Amino acid sequence: MPFVSPINIKRGMTVSALAKQMESVRVLGPGRFGRAVRILSQMFDDQDYCKMLSIAGPIIPGGLRNILVDLVEKNLINAIVTTGANVTHDMLESLGHRHIVGSETDNDEMLRKKGLSRIYDLLVKQKAIEHLEISTRHMLERIPLEDRRNIATYELLWQFGGQLKDKKSLLSVASRRHMPIFCPGIFDSMLGLDLWTYSQLNPLFINPFKDFSKLVNLSYEAKRVGAIILGGGMPKHHVLIANSYRGGVDAAIQITLDRPEGGGASGAPLEEAISWGKIKRHDNLVTLVGDATVLFPIITLGALENAGK
Amino acid sequence: MPFVSPINIKRGMTVSALAKQMESVRVLGPGRFGRAVRILSQMFDDQDYCKMLSIAGPIIPGGLRNILVDLVEKNLINAIVTTGANVTHDMLESLGHRHIVGSETDNDEMLRKKGLSRIYDLLVKQKAIEHLEISTRHMLERIPLEDRRNIATYELLWQFGGQLKDKKSLLSVASRRHMPIFCPGIFDSMLGLDLWTYSQLNPLFINPFKDFSKLVNLSYEAKRVGAIILGGGMPKHHVLIANSYRGGVDAAIQITLDRPEGGGASGAPLEEAISWGKIKRHDNLVTLVGDATVLFPIITLGALENAGK
Amino acid sequence: MPFVSPINIKRGMTVSALAKQMESVRVLGPGRFGRAVRILSQMFDDQDYCKMLSIAGPIIPGGLRNILVDLVEKNLINAIVTTGANVTHDMLESLGHRHIVGSETDNDEMLRKKGLSRIYDLLVKQKAIEHLEISTRHMLERIPLEDRRNIATYELLWQFGGQLKDKKSLLSVASRRHMPIFCPGIFDSMLGLDLWTYSQLNPLFINPFKDFSKLVNLSYEAKRVGAIILGGGMPKHHVLIANSYRGGVDAAIQITLDRPEGGGASGAPLEEAISWGKIKRHDNLVTLVGDATVLFPIITLGALENAGK
Amino acid sequence: MPFVSPINIKRGMTVSALAKQMESVRVLGPGRFGRAVRILSQMFDDQDYCKMLSIAGPIIPGGLRNILVDLVEKNLINAIVTTGANVTHDMLESLGHRHIVGSETDNDEMLRKKGLSRIYDLLVKQKAIEHLEISTRHMLERIPLEDRRNIATYELLWQFGGQLKDKKSLLSVASRRHMPIFCPGIFDSMLGLDLWTYSQLNPLFINPFKDFSKLVNLSYEAKRVGAIILGGGMPKHHVLIANSYRGGVDAAIQITLDRPEGGGASGAPLEEAISWGKIKRHDNLVTLVGDATVLFPIITLGALENAGK
User: Fold this and answer.
1) What is the Cα–Cα distance from C191 to B104, expressed in whole angstroms?
2) For residue range A88-107, what is the model confidence (pLDDT) as tens digits?
3) Which residues in B lie closer than 8 A to residue C2 (C-beta atoms)?
4) What ipTM does the predicted assembly reach?
C-alpha cells in the first residue's frame, strides 16, 4: 500500500516543483492538484493530443482571457466549447469595454438605474452591451449572405474574430489560427439576443448540427483527446458527449465548485462519464473541487513549466 | 424591527400550515422555505401569471415527472425550459424503460461492460438508449418534410409528444395542451445525438430562433410572469433572459445547490438578475439552497393546498 | 434490480404520505428524504432506541427551539450534544430577548455601532448579550460551591435550566426531565466567555471528562442508539466517537450542507464512520444534503405522523 | 471606478508574481487569491503581528505538516488553535506511523475488518491508534502529578512535544519554541479518548479556562493580530472570539469550502465577525472559497517569496 508523503516548500521553488510535492501526497486535494498538473503537462507535451477546453462561468470576465489566448497561440488548445457569456465578454473587451470592480453586496435596483449590470462583484456597463448590439449587426452585415443562410457557431465566431480590430481577443486569435470555438448555447446570451434580433429582419440561420459534425470529426480524427473542463454546464457535457463516438476521451481534468449529490451533469465526477462511453477509463482523470478562475492559472503555469522538458 | 418567531409543529398538520409556521421565522432557511411556498401559491392562484418552469438536473429521472404532468394538466405551468437530458428521460420512460436503482460507488468500467449508464446512484440501460434512437427516427419520419425543414424545439417536442403512446408522459401532455417545452440545449443530449444522426442523411433543420421568438412572445403578452427555477444551467438563464424584453419577471423562486462565489449564472442569486433587467424588483423573489428534487415536491404540495382558498 | 418509481402528490396528503412516495424513488435526494423519515420514524417508535441529537449551526436561533422542546417532552430525544452557540441562544430567548430580522447584506461596521450582531440575516442585540452575562453570574452564584468545583457541562446546564424562569426553554425542559445536554465546546461561545470571566475571580471548574463518562454510559447502556445529526462540527463527531465503545450507533440520519471532498468530519458521509467503529453497519444510515433548519422540521413532522401507527 | 485587469502568466514566473497578476483582477476568485497572498505577506513581514493559525479538516494528514513546522520555526506562526484530530495525526506520524493511500469508494465494513480507518481517500491503521494509546499513557505518566491536576491543553501538548522523539513533529517544534498549540476540542478525538481513559484511573484534570486565559493574553498583548483560518469549526471561531477583548483581529484570511447560507460559523464570511467585535474592520480581510489543503501551500509559498523584500 502506497503512503502519503508530506509537502515541502521552499522560497523560490517553481509551481511545477510545488505540484510535484503535492502529487506525492497522493490523497485529498493536494494529490488531485498534483495529478492535475501532471495530466495537463502530458497533454501539452504530446502533439498527438487534441486538447479540448470547455469553459462555463466567468472565465473571460474573471481575467483568464490572456491565458486562453496564449494557450491557443502556442497550439496547446485545439478546440474550445464555451457558454455564450464568455464569447459576449470577449467581444465586449475587444470593443474596448473594460469590466468594472463592484461588490457582491451592491444594490441591484440601484445598479440598474445607473446602467450597470452585475456578475457577483464585477460590473458591466449597459452602454457596452448596446455597443455590442450595433457592432454585431455591422459584423453580420459583412458576412456573405450565402454563408449566413446556414452557419455553424464556430464559423460565425471565426467571422467575428476576423473582423474584430483587437488582435489579442480570443475570437480574433482563434480565427487567425483556425481553431474552432463552439458555442452550443449561443442563443442564450447577450450576444444571442443580438443575433436573434438581427434574424428577425435579415437572413441568418445558425445550424448547430454543423457544429456538432465538426466537433465529432475533430474527436474522431485525433489520436488522443484530452478534455480540460472549467466549470460545468453545457460546455462540459458537450465535449464529453461528442467524444462518445470515438469511445471516450483519453484524459481529462475538471475544476468545479458544483457538487455531485444533486445528480446534475455539472457536478458529476468524471468517472460517471465512463459508464456512458464518454471517457475511456479511470487513468488520467482528475476532478479538482475549487474555483476554476483561481486554480486554472496556477495549474497551467505548472504544466507550462513541465512541458518540453 | 420585526422579530423571528419559532416554528411549532403538530402531528397531522398540512404542509401549507407548516410552511406558514416556517415563514414566520422570516430568516435563514425556514423563512425562505415559507416564502417560496407563499410565492408559488400566489402564482398558482393568479390566472394572470404566466408560470415558466426551468428544469436542470435529474428532475424527470429523479421521480418528479408525474408532478410536472399534474401541474401542466391543471394549467399551473404555462411553459417549460429544459435540458435535453430531461426530455431524453421522459421519452425513455414513455417507451417503457424504467430507471434502475444503482449506487454512487458503482464501478463505471464494470457498468459500461454490463450495458448500464449511471447518473449518481441511478442507472439506465444502453438498450433503452438504442431503442430511443430507433423510435426517434420513426417519429421524425412521420413529421411532414416541410415542417422538418425549419422546426423549433417546442414544435419538434409537440410532434414527439403527439406520437408517443404513453399518454402520461410530459411530452404527450404538453402536446395535447399546447404547452410549449423549450429545449435550447437539445443538441447536447442523447436525444440530440439521435437528431444529429438523422440529420446527416435526412432533411432536419432545427431553428432555435423560432423557439426564442415564441418564448419572448409568451413573456411579452403575459400580464405577469412567474419563474420557477429548478437547478441552474442554461434553462434558468434562458427563462430570465427571454423576460428582459418585458422588463423582467414579476416573481421567481429558485432551488439550487450551486453556490454564488464562483460567479456562474447557475448559482447566482436572483437579485443579480435585477441589474440585467431580467427580474423587475426585490419583492417576490426567493432562493432556496437545497436539492430541487427534494424541495420542489414539498413546496408544490404546500402551494397546491393554499391555492384556491 | 429494483426500479425507480415516480412521486405522486395530492392536495391534502400528509408529510408522511409524501415521504412514502419519495422513498419509492429510492435514488437521489427523494429516496434519501424518504429513508430519513422512515429511519426517524423507527427511532421514535422503538423505546429501546436511545436517541442522540447533535446540533451545530443556527438551530435554536433559526426557529427550531420549540420542535426540540416538544421532542424532549415526548421522550423522543434522550440526549443532546450541542455547540455553545445554541445554548447561548436558548438562554437569550429564555431571558426574553428575541432575535431580530436583518439581511445578509447589512453593513457590519454599521451594525456594530448600532449594538447589533449578525448571524447571516438574523440579528442579536449586544444588550441582550450583556444581560446574559449578568444572569449567568447570578445563576452561577446559586450553584453550591461544592458542585462548582468539578462540574460537567450537562450538570451546569441542568442547573441553569432549573433556574431559568422560562419553562419552555430547552434548558429548562431538559433540566426537569433530566435529559442531558452536552456542550463539549461550551468554552467557545458567548456563554463560554461569561463562564471564563466568572472563573477568573470565583471557583468554577468545568470537567469535560465527566461529560464524556456520562455520554459513554448512556451509549453503553442503551439497547440501541440512534443518532440524529443536524449540521457537522464537534457535536456530530462527539456523538459518534462516544458510541465507539459499544461498537457504533445502530442507525443515523445526518442533514448537512458541508461537502465530503475536503476530508473534514463535518461533511464526511456516515459510511466513513463505520471504518472507525463509530457506526455499526450500512443499513439504517442516510445523509441528506441540505439545510437542517429547513429539512428537520419537515422530516420530524413526517416521522411523528408515522410513529405509533 | 477601478477596472478588472487580466492575468498574464509566463513560464518560470514565481508564485508571488502570479499572485500579483491575480490581485490585479481585483474581483472574483483571482482577486481574492491575490489579496490573500498580499495580506499573508504583510503578516509575515511585520514583527508586530501575532499570527494565529486555526486548523480544521485534514491539514496534518493531508500533507501540510512540514509547512506548519517550517512556519513555526521561522517564527511566522505564533499560536495555533486546532482540532483534536490534527494533534492526533501529528502524534501518529511522530510515532512512525504513516498514512496510507485509499479511495473514497472503499467499502468501510471491509476496511473495519482489515483494521483500517478512513478519512475520505486516506487510511490509518487501527494498530497505529492502539500504539498511540499506549504512548499517550506513558507520556502522561512522565508529567509531574502536580502539573496533571490542573493542566491546559497547550501545556499538555508542550509536555507531549517535549517527550516525542520525532524532532520534526509539530508538537515537538512547538514545545521547543514555546509556541502554544491550543486544542479546545481535545476531548473530541482519538487522543481525547486516550486522555479520558487515563483519567478514569489516574489524576488528570484538563482546564480549558487556562487555555483561554493564555489565548486572550496573547491577543491582548499583541500590537496587531492576524488570523489565518484554514477550514471552519471550533478552531476558527475560537481564534476570533478570543480576540474580541482587544476589539478584534487586525487582518484575517480564511480558506473554506463551507457555505454561508446555512448560518453556521464555519461558512460565515469574515465580515460577519465585525458585528461581533471579533474583527476590527473591512480592510485586510479575505475569504477564499476552496480547499485549504490545496490553496494554503500555494499562498504560503507566495507570501514567503514576498516577505523580507
Assistant:
1) 42
2) 999 999 999 999 999 999 99
3) 100-101
4) 0.97
